[in-house]
Amino acid sequence: MVATRWDPEQYLRYSDHRLRPQIELMERIPHASPDLIYDLGCGTGSGTRIIASRWPAAKVIGLDSSAEMIQKSSAEPSSITWVQADIATWQPDEAPDIIYTNATLQWVPGHLELFPRLVSFLKPGGCLAVQMPLSWDAPSHVLMRETLHTAGPGGTALGTEDLHKAVARKWVDGADWYYDLLVNRVKTIDIWSTEYLQVLHGEDPVLEWVSGTGLRPILNGLDDAQREVYLTAYRHKLREVYPVRGNGETLYPFKRLFIVATV
Question: How many domains does the chain have?
Answer without folding.
Answer: 1
